[in-house]
Amino acid sequence: MVKIKVAINGFCRVGRSVFKIAQSRSDIEIAAIRTHLSAEQCAYLLKHDSIYGHYAKAIGTGDASLYVGDRIIPIISDKRTTKLPWDDLGIDVLIDAGCQTDAAELRRHRTAGARRVASLSQCADFATIVMGVNDGLVNVSTDIVCSGDAAISSVALVIATLDQAVGVEAATITAAGNYHFAGSLLKTERLGDSDLVAMAADYGQRLQTVLPNVASAVSGLAVSSRQYGNVGLSTISLLLREPVAAKKINEILTRAAREPLYNGILAVTDKELVAEDFRGNSYSSTVDAGLTAVVGERLAQVSTWYDSEWASANRLVELAAETGRYARNVQ
User: Fold this and answer.
1) Which of 71, 75, 235, 246 could form a cystine bridge with 303, CB 3.0-4.6 A?
2) Model confidence at 185, in pLDDT bands (50, 70, 90)?
């Protein structure tokens, strides 16, 4: 098997999750990590995780490199993006695991020799790809793509499924999690340990390349709190084109979750679960069937859980693998 060579830019929590997921795949080789952290700091943070527990693989360091199992992975700290050794290392995909929204900075990785770039953060210059919804847009000419945050993936899967089945005229979203939106810097600066911060979120714009037929009729609200931890809950209110019962909505979503397209991405549960039950869950969207409701005939409400870090990291790695296959012409 021809492995896809990736470099990881940023070794924050998501970057370390990306590392663990990519390291477990047989089709990906991690060739380098770019971070301001030393190899010793990387090793410590990779091994000891306060949320997901200790990393089982043996880890060591030496010569500005990270030793993981039988792999030696160089740690690169050069701040000059265009001078990074992506060409020399034969990098198929640069995985940007930070919060980089500067299109010019993402393009600099291409200048440095990376054949493709897969970024966690959304950038207006590049398509946002939600696996299972619009990943068909990835092709041989796609050089830079964004996976978007976990809230976007969680709602896009539900809206896309219901739009195909019964039609969606409009939707509002309330996403509750520990992430912060830049909509109000003053509010986010005030966020204390016990605070809830609510901000308008332009989901319509963020879903434009994901759900172009529906996005203009979508809006919403983001609720942030440090108490939420990694797990988030998105509640979607949908005005459907056809009358439908709550039971039918759950059946539609359950049937979709069984399709190969949504394997490992969309799930439905009828169990009495709480946020902690979804920590470390790799699904982008787990619909809580017990919370599905319909008012009148066409106004529906669907709630879905996700681990904002682990699910995002999984989709980012999958997106990198998809773009990397085109970079390597391995189909």
Assistant:
1) 235
2) low
